UniProtKB/TrEMBL annotation:
<dbReference type="Pfam" id="PF03625">
    <property type="entry name" value="DUF302"/>
</dbReference>
<dbReference type="InterPro" id="IPR005180">
    <property type="entry name" value="DUF302"/>
</dbReference>
<feature type="domain" description="DUF302">
    <location>
        <begin position="35"/>
        <end position="100"/>
    </location>
</feature>
<protein>
    <submittedName>
        <fullName>ABC transporter</fullName>
    </submittedName>
</protein>
<dbReference type="InterPro" id="IPR035923">
    <property type="entry name" value="TT1751-like_sf"/>
</dbReference>
<dbReference type="InterPro" id="IPR016796">
    <property type="entry name" value="UCP021774"/>
</dbReference>
Length: 132
C-alpha cells in the first residue's frame, strides 16, 4: 500500500502553494503550521535543496472525531501536505498528502476507518481540484 495521495502540477512553486492552500480551504482544512525545509536546511546545516514546503493541515471536526476515538492520534496530526519542486523536472511541482488510512494501519484502531475515509476523500478532492 502506498502512503501518499499526490499530483504533479506544471506551474510555478508559488502558484502551486497558493492553489494548494485554496484547495485545502475548500475542503474545510486550515493550515496550522508551515515548515520551509529549503530555508531550514540552509540556515541550520548549510545544505541546499529544492523548494520544499510542509503544510500542517487540519479539518477541526474530523480531527475532533479522530481524537475522540483515540487520544494518542494527536501524535499523527495535523495532516501533512507537501508542496515540493520536482528535482527530476524543473517544470513540475509535486503536491503530496499522507493517505489517512495510514492512521488506521499504524494504530490498528478500526473505529478510525470511517474518519480516515472521510479525511481521505476530502484530501483527494483537494488534490484532484488542483488539476482544474
Amino acid at each position: 500500500m502506498g502512503f501518499a495521495l499526490s499530483t504533479v502540477l506544471h506551474t510555478s512553486f508559488d502558484d502551486a502553494v497558493t492553489r494548494t492552500r485554496e484547495a485545502l480551504a475548500g475542503q474545510g482544512f486550515g493550515v496550522l503550521t508551515e515548515i520551509d525545509m529549503q530555508a531550514t536546511l540552509k540556515a541550520k546545516l548549510g545544505e541546499d535543496m529544492e523548494q520544499y514546503l510542509i503544510l500542517g493541515a487540519c479539518n477541526p471536526p474530523l480531527a475532533h472525531r479522530a481524537v475522540d476515538v483515540n487520544r494518542q492520534i494527536g501524535l499523527l496530526l495535523p495532516c501533512n501536505v507537501v508542496v515540493r519542486a520536482d528535482p527530476a523536472n524543473e517544470a513540475a511541482v509535486l503536491v503530496e498528502a499522507m493517505d489517512p488510512q495510514v492512521l488506521v494501519d499504524v494504530t490498528g484502531e478500526e473505529q478510525l476507518k470511517p474518519v480516515a475515509d472521510e479525511v481521505a476523500a476530502k484530501l483527494r478532492a483537494a488534490i484532484d481540484s488542483l488539476q482544474n
